[in-house]
Automatic annotation (TrEMBL):
<dbReference type="InterPro" id="IPR042174">
    <property type="entry name" value="RecF_2"/>
</dbReference>
<keyword id="KW-0235">DNA replication</keyword>
<keyword id="KW-0234">DNA repair</keyword>
<dbReference type="GO" id="GO:0006302">
    <property type="term" value="P:double-strand break repair"/>
</dbReference>
<dbReference type="GO" id="GO:0003697">
    <property type="term" value="F:single-stranded DNA binding"/>
</dbReference>
<keyword id="KW-0963">Cytoplasm</keyword>
<dbReference type="GO" id="GO:0009432">
    <property type="term" value="P:SOS response"/>
</dbReference>
<dbReference type="InterPro" id="IPR001238">
    <property type="entry name" value="DNA-binding_RecF"/>
</dbReference>
<dbReference type="Pfam" id="PF02463">
    <property type="entry name" value="SMC_N"/>
</dbReference>
<keyword id="KW-0238">DNA-binding</keyword>
<protein>
    <recommendedName>
        <fullName>DNA replication and repair protein RecF</fullName>
    </recommendedName>
</protein>
<comment type="similarity">
    <text>Belongs to the RecF family.</text>
</comment>
<dbReference type="InterPro" id="IPR018078">
    <property type="entry name" value="DNA-binding_RecF_CS"/>
</dbReference>
<keyword id="KW-0742">SOS response</keyword>
<feature type="domain" description="RecF/RecN/SMC N-terminal">
    <location>
        <begin position="3"/>
        <end position="365"/>
    </location>
</feature>
<keyword id="KW-0067">ATP-binding</keyword>
<dbReference type="GO" id="GO:0000731">
    <property type="term" value="P:DNA synthesis involved in DNA repair"/>
</dbReference>
Amino acid sequence: MLLTNLQLKQFRNYTELSLDFSKKLVIFLGNNAQGKTNILESIFALAMTRSHRTTNEQELIHWDCTEAYVAGEVKRGHQQIPLELFLTKKGRKTKVNHIEQKKLSSYIGQLNVILFAPEDLSLVKGSPQLRRKFLDMEIGQMNAVYLYDLQQYQKILKQRNQYLKQMAEQKATDELYLSILTEQLVEAGSKVLLTRQRFAQRLENWANQLHQKISQSKETLTIHYSSTVDFEGTDDLAIIQEKYQQALAKVKDKEKYRQMTLVGPHRDDLAFFINEKNVQNFGSQGQQRTTALSVKLAEIDLMHEETGEYPILLLDDVMSELDDVRQMHLLEAIENKVQTFLTTTTLEHLKNKMTVEPEIYYVDQGKIIKGA
């Protein structure tokens, strides 16, 4: 998979921009706050229809404009696929091959991206919400059915929480309606649980290989999907649904008191272990960073295994955050394999490590000049 062209109109600090890419390594070089990250953000938005930096889409639109436009040409095998994203104050619109896509699941997955930024080094020690977002984002790109199941789950969860609140305020008393919502929640949520668990198992396989290589076979990495539903040891959907129902029944009174759903994928987490020791609680900063790097790089092979195409890698000023050993392993993992877009303030830490000739763009106050 290759991104061969990128076009921006009224996106962040770019009024109009068109770039063509011919190489596997593209570097955006410049000082901080010049617009380098905005380019990576636009590629991410083209793939995922939203930003990784903000939930407010208005921030993506140039300050004195009412709409923004991001487009790109994606090469997959022998196909050249034009993608378009329109952002307005009323919402967003997407097109594939110039045809509007009404469903998010019909659009996401056309361009697969993996973003690695300094904040991703906090994947291990950060909040559970960060790891749930990671799961949903990565699985959603590879699995349109998961994206649909997750959207259904979130929709029912919102309805159920609203009804629990109404019951607490004595504005609603229909236990039958609550049980119907519970049944619907379990049906959608169990599918989400099963897909996440299977993903965690496959991710562990690839991540452990990388982790052992970085640690020179001194450490074994395991990944555990930690759920509020005790379904470990089974991938039978009917059994998961039964256990999910049981878990909800146990907290029914507590949910009414707290006015929220207390069990399900929205409260789950990923746990990382090195040599059977919990990295989040007991790992050193170096172990936490190595784990995060192994997990992010493992996605490259996992996506290739799932889709038959390597994703595009976005490295946002992450090289300066890694020591020489981790930089070397990162560059080895991507070399001649994935198209990589990299932002940096200097080439000093890359000069002697790159074996492929990069395409370099100099970025200065929203203006981009291609290097010779």
